[in-house]
Amino acid sequence: MDIKHYMNDLGLRARAASRAMARADTAAKNTALRLIADAIRRDAAALRAANELDLVAARAAGMDPAMLDRLTLSDKAIATMAEGLEQIISLADPIGEISNMKYRPTGIQVGQMRVPLGVIGIIYEARPNVTVDAAGLCIKSGNATILRGGSEAIHCNQALAKIVKEGLAGAGLPPDAVQIVETTDRAAVGELITMPQYIDVIVPRGGKGLIERLIREATVPMIKHLDGICHVYIDDKADLQKAIDVAFNAKCHRYGTCNTMETLLVAQGIAAQVLPALSDLYASKQVELRCDEAAAAILPNYPHLAHATSADWSTEYLAPILAVKVVADMDEAITHINNYSSKHTESIITEDYTRAMRFLREVDSASVMVNASTRFADGFEYGLGAEIGISNDKLHARGPVGLEGLTSLKYVVFGHGEIRQ
């Protein structure tokens, strides 16, 4: 296969489809999403069979448990994909919305209209649900998309792409609005990220190595986050049971996700109360605790304890490993977070309103929470229907990226024949 010619052809078709999608009405887009959701439920058995082919190959290749977890398409995951599309249907269509209209002294009216970004290239590893989440969000937001999933999910992604194209065609929309890169050749990624004439933005969803490569090589703008070094800070005015529940869930609900807590910070005044109770729960899950000197002194008999090094404060484990540090107060906690966080998600556990509001203002991350698990940093949980990714950048989109994050604003002017003097 001539990769350059193949990718150029995908780009040409996507650009043409993007123009049709930009003018598509809400009813047609929602019809497509409904047809796709119905077909996912209809073909659940076939999707599981395709996923099993991927899983067999992944296990034979020695894929690590965190990646296998992401690759697995369970019954619940299939149901969640369909539900995510239905949530997107229920959301207001942002395209064409005009806001901030103002009269100027000259007589003209100036406002802003929300419009699609155009063509979005999405590069992702393992997770086949991204195929549907991304397709659904791009369809509703009037964009075309080129999806390049990982080779480890090729069978499942192809099965899902077939369903998506069926839904688009059934709604009278161009099937080329969602295209899957059929080759697993890594050169296809290099072409996709260097086609600004066809691609308006790249959204990478994958491991640190993939993101680092794209940062080096891409000539197309990106919506991205590099890693998820998320923190929970237990304040000395925390409710003990809330602290235990949140800190356990944030780490142990799932290990292989970007919104999993990787560092636990505990105020000195409450550490002797909360750490022993938490350690019993962590021990039941065989979580290794990498503790600073103060935390280690409180947990001398913990069965899976190691002494933290400086590298532990800036490591995304994606595994049953947790860095633990005792801090003097919230000031030290905020300083630590702003120094070591990847700007993804942080949470404070406290009953003190003033401290909670300080934490929200001063912690410089895309999602900042009070008395809640970091695992809620997710488009589905935020009511976005689904997410195309999470951004810890500060320009254009930040946090979980849903419909609005896939649009832009342009200025529109209404006049009555005014001319500039």
Uncertain segments of ≥5 residues (pLDDT<50)? none
Measured distance between first and last alpha carbons: 59 Å
Our estimate of the beta-strand percent is: 15-25%
Number of strands: 16
The major sheet is characterized as: 7 strands, parallel
Rg of Cα set: 23 Å
Order of helices and strands: HHHHHEEEHEHEHEHEHEHEHEEHEHEEEE
Shape: globular
- Given the helix and strand composition, which structural class is it? alpha/beta
Number of helices: 14
Order of strands, main sheet, comes to: 10-9-11-8-7-12-13
Helix content percent band: 40-55%
Describe the structure in your own words.
The chain is an alpha/beta fold and 421 residues long. It has 14 helices and 16 strands. It has helices at 3-22, 26-42, 44-60, 65-71, 75-90, 129-140, 154-170, 187-192, 208-217, 240-252, 268-284, 293-298, 330-340, 353-362, and strands at 98-103, 109-116, 119-124, 144-148, 178-180, 201-205, 230-234, 261-267, 288-291, 305-307, 321-327, 345-349, 367-370, 389-391, 399-401, 407-414. A seven-stranded parallel beta sheet has the order 10-9-11-8-7-12-13, sandwiched between helices. Strands 5-4-3-6 form a four-stranded parallel beta sheet, with helices on both faces. Strand 9 (288-291), helix 12 and strand 10 form a beta-alpha-beta unit. Helix 5 (75-90) packs parallel to helix 6 (129-140) and helix 10 (240-252) crosses helix 11 (268-284).
